[in-house]
Specification:
The structure holds two protein chains of two kinds. By secondary structure, chain A is of the alpha+beta class. Chain A is built from three helices and seven strands; from the N terminus they run αββββααβββ. In chain A, the strands form two sheets. In chain A, strands 4-3-5-6-7 form a five-stranded antiparallel β-sheet, covered by helices on one side. In chain A, strands 1-2 form a two-stranded antiparallel sheet. Chain A is elongated, with a radius of gyration of 22 Å. Chain B is mostly helical. Helix content of chain B is 66%, strand content 0%. Chain B is built from 14 helices and no strands. At the A-B interface, helix 1, strand 1, strand 2, strand 3 and strand 4 of A face helix 5, helix 6, helix 7 and helix 8 of B.
Amino acid sequence: MTSRTRSVRVLVGTLIVYALLVAPHEGEFWPFSIYPMFSQGGNPWSRAVVYDVTDNLGESGEPLAWETVQDEDALPGKPFALGDHSIDPIDLSNFVSKTEIWHAERVQGLRQMFHDHVGQRDLLVVRVNGRITAQDSVVVEYVPYALLRDEDTELHSDLPTAQTPQ
Amino acid sequence: MSRLQSLLPYVTFSSTGGWNLWTNLFDFDREETPGEIIFFRLFELFVIAGTIYLAWSWGQYIVRISDIVLPLGIAIYVNVSFMFGNTLPLINAGIISALTIAGFLRLSRYAYFVAFLLLHLQFVSRFVLGEIPHSSNVLGMTLLGIGLTMMFFQNPRIRRRFTLGFTYFFIGLGYTSAAFCKFIGTGLHWADGRHLWLWIHEKGIDAFALTGSLEFNALQEVALGSFAVATLFLLVGLISELFAFLMWWRPLRTPLVLAVIGLHIGIYWTMNIMFTLTFMQLILLALPWGNWIDRLLPHRAKQMLMYGVPSKPSRYAVAS
């Protein structure tokens, strides 16, 4: 077999494997991908940010207002820069937006992301939703999702919770 | 030969044997220069360094993970939670590192491919929290290419040519695929400036989460202030992706890869996203580094690299 024949076979073979792996896996099987990033223009998005609200909670542990706001300045506390603490914001965003049931294991997983910090400060995880309005402007909404405290985690009352699945 | 003349082989058709795809991708019959040999070893070192960096950076993050939100790759079929809560990710990173070095030293023809498989395990263990990143795909495909090369080919020149041709093929395919995804996912109106507005805000929030500061740079402000400018940005990027497959043909390789590099610069300026390893690899693949190394090498060094003997002529007549 000549080198050229073998090279064609190896490359085409890889291409076939590529197609067979990405087709049944929604276009993704690392490192094979159809690269669908930013393919859906105009779709609403969801992200997450974190606020340090340690100084905003009363000594009695009064609950914060769980209101959705459109101005980040209206949120309590001060921004908690994830980069300073080696926490990947994309991981947090996906964790928050793709979690359907906030059972005990999922809540523990969220706390585990901040394991070095929940004992030292109170952190408010905020889901951020963006969309284009009918008037062709972009609106961004901040939705408080979870308050991580040393002793417990308080979730927004609208989040579905359940017992740990068997 | 002037610098401009050294670039001519990349833009003229006569030196490449026409439009034949396999000749343009692999060109096994073309003479190899010492500069190309040296460039390939440097390129290989880059792939190794990138692989080791990914293996260890992912490994250090895996030790902080305790739950699976969205399994990817082999993790769809194999529960990778055995990688959590212990030092296995770091051990795996060590094994990957050792295998890539073994591959570089040609101690085993299977070393690179096994390193690739273990890197896949490292990837799917790291990215179980919902994110599906693409910053390492190009390097991963290149590592696979080197792995397949070492297993299926013996001749060093064939190995070098196949690895690079394989890499160009799948890079071009990937970017063109991205363009088609946009047409399928949104339609011909994908390049609508309002879409860029939405993405700029999204990436602004990502930067806000990372740094604690929410602000836009000058280019983002310009795009946000003008529908036409935002649309133009998207249109240029889309065209660069759509025609990226033309890098398969050698005369078009440099301009197309440079266009893709420009695409990444634009993505960085407008959306704060930079695929650093991919960007660096594209710079290595865009420019005629082999030619430039040839110009720097002393003649004696070239002779020794190609033939393994000094170029000093014999005092005796040499049979032709």
